[in-house]
Amino acid sequence: MPELAEVAYASKQWNLAVSKRVKEVVIHPTSRVFRDCDKNSVFELLSGKQMKSGQSHGKQILFHFSGNVWLGVHLGMTGSLLNENSTYLPQKHDALVLKVNTHSFIFRDPRQFGRIRIEEGKNQPVWWSNQPISMLDSKFEIKILKNALIRHNRRPIKALLLDQRYFPGMGNWMADEVLWRAKIHPANLCSKIPQLKMASLFNEILFVVSGALNSVGKNGGDPPKGWLFHARWKDGQLCPKTNSALKRESIGGRTTCFCPELQKIF
DNA sequence: ATACCTGTTTCCCG
DNA sequence: CCGGGAAACAGGTA
Description:
Elements: H1 4-12, E1 24-27, H2 39-46, E2 51-57, E3 60-65, E4 69-74, E5 80-85, E6 94-99, E7 103-108, E8 115-120, H3 126-129, H4 142-151, H5 157-161, H6 172-181, H7 195-219, E9 247-251, E10 254-258
Antiparallel strand pairs: 1-6, 2-3, 3-4, 4-8, 5-7, 6-7, 9-10
The chain binds a DNA duplex through residues 1-3, 6, 32, 59, 74-79, 93, 110-115, 151-152, 154-155, 159, 162, 164, 171-174, 233, 252-255.
């Protein structure tokens, strides 16, 4: 489920909790999402606290509570944030449920690749404030792309786009969407990207990020019609631009969908 | 049954 | 020491 826009949408599902006081904390006894934190701390630090705010940055989510408490959520591959009414009964894969008077706020993650962090401190946690520049920030410039291309010249461009140190929030389908729009074969090594292509690659990153936020990020639905997204999931689909057969193969360690007619090796 | 999956970390290799 | 890639994590779904 979760890349940048879906993560932004997920974090909003807990907006109703802002300014509410946590009456009950329900923690899954065995879920791996607590592997890096102390479950007792999660319980102790959140119980009775008032949620101040929630925000997302790339694939990371941070909630701020009274008493200088910070709750970090990463959705992994199958995580989601939901809200239900106050009579909600926790289900099998609900890792964390926070109950306030009116609602239950749920972090559900069947595969448990997600992650919960809990911290107490006057300032935002270091892992949060040290994140790379957001792709939405005006300081996210083409220089970041160019430097990454040079540094990782032996890597396929698809793998580079998935690197969260440079493109926080970029995920598998967004990366495919970007390369398809920029007409770049995903297996191209970074050293092979022509200088002239870099500006369009950068612009397509911005386009896909904002387009995804305006559709998926707003209402949780799908990206706009005509995007590769709608054709990329199964074999035998046609390219929305060329109407020729799309191809799917593993590139950069992930299933990658592209249009061989449109996206060239340089 | 078998394969596949919108992510990250760890380990091994050159 | 560095960068790249495979494996591992785990459960649901086709």
